[in-house]
Amino acid sequence: MQDLSSGFAPDDASARPIHMLDPSGLDAWMKEQDSVTRDWVKDAGFTAQAGRVLTIPALDGTLAGALVGLGDPDKHGRHRFLLAQARAALPQGNWRLLTEFDTDAANEAALGWLLAGHVFDRYAEAQAPNTRLVPPSSCDRARVLAIANGEALTRDLINTPANDMGPAELEQAARDLADRHGAAIDVIGSDALLDRNFPLIHTVGRAAAPHRAPRLIDLRWGGAGPTLTLVGKGVCFDTGGLNLKPGSSMGLMKKDMGGAATVLGLAHMIMALGLSLRLRVLIPAVENAVGSDAFRPGDILPSRKGLSVEINNTDAEGRLVLADALAFGAEDAPDLMVSMATLTGAARVAVGPDLAPFFCDDDPLADALYSGARRVRDPVWRLPFWEPYEPMIEPGIADLDNAPKGGFAGAITAALFLRRFTEGAARYVHFDIYGWQPTAAPARPKGGVGQGARALLAALPQVLKL
Length: 466
Fold this sequence. Notes:
By secondary structure, the chain is an alpha/beta fold. 34% of the residues lie in helices and 20% in strands. GO terms for molecular function: manganese ion binding; metalloaminopeptidase activity.
């Protein structure tokens, strides 16, 4: 996991100032400057456009500071992490953010700065910006650093291709995280899955090569407080199975373990911050491969919970492995259980790549997630557990259908399927994330990205009464 702490500088009076300004703030700032500086800003055409960066020279030719545009306040919702754009544009050295922000805005600015320093350099050399920030006094430095490093872990795991990120490597990442924080970890592997009643996880992963055999990762941390169970889909590559995906759909399937990557990143945040709760992380890690032992369309499979499942599409495998893991987690009756998964294309059609849709029956919990998402600029959107669609996942020949025909409401029917396995958990939330940034944006280069984790972290104190 890349440590992003080098992006922060200790308090340094000599650090050059950064002023983040909207157009009215720019007008006020200009009135306080000498005529040379005012002319410089005007001649450069700087009008505090969102994300625009302008360095300001001193009279002796040295660098006096920089301006970063916030844009029109009425359009603030269009932009996130604007300070991140400045990091790559500024000369090396220490910088100080002088603009007065409340804690949430200061944390967003500082987080964006740190994330702009994250590079994925496992396979090709990449240079992180050689600049450091003295965060504003209102910034919660330790919290921002924990979040940034958790997000870096998530991104690195998703970006790593499947030849180097199979079930065994995902297990090792979880073990490394457990060692770092003194957590306990248990891994149920291969044939032991059948012995311990995880038939769906075993069936989905059994066609993979022996060194990529399926397993269930179970990490526990914390000795007191409310209980939180995170369940992350760990399909390390998804061919679609015998319902083979076309090449155009298979190209990004290294990210099909994005749910697992996200819950591991969130687990780091929780443990690094020392939250007063008992955390459990469950990851069914598999590869959905094509082979002589692959499960087939038309098969009817047992599950840990005892519900039978008719397989109408082997490419709807994520809900199968999650079902066994959710049933296992629910047996402990956690106060809150959360699943995160790159589960359905239907969710992407509904809300696009930026929004993380979530399903929740609990209005106060949903409100807390919305509130947290707004504070930390981690957008989420609620979709319904729409009960009139329950018959769509009941095929008659078995208790459940893993891929209802018709093509409608795919994200909702998948969420309804998962909810059938959560009995025992006091509250349940399901996130159907994308886990990928398709085009570069401030603090979010093209590639793997965490979604929903920061919103949930922000909501936990209210939801679990921490």
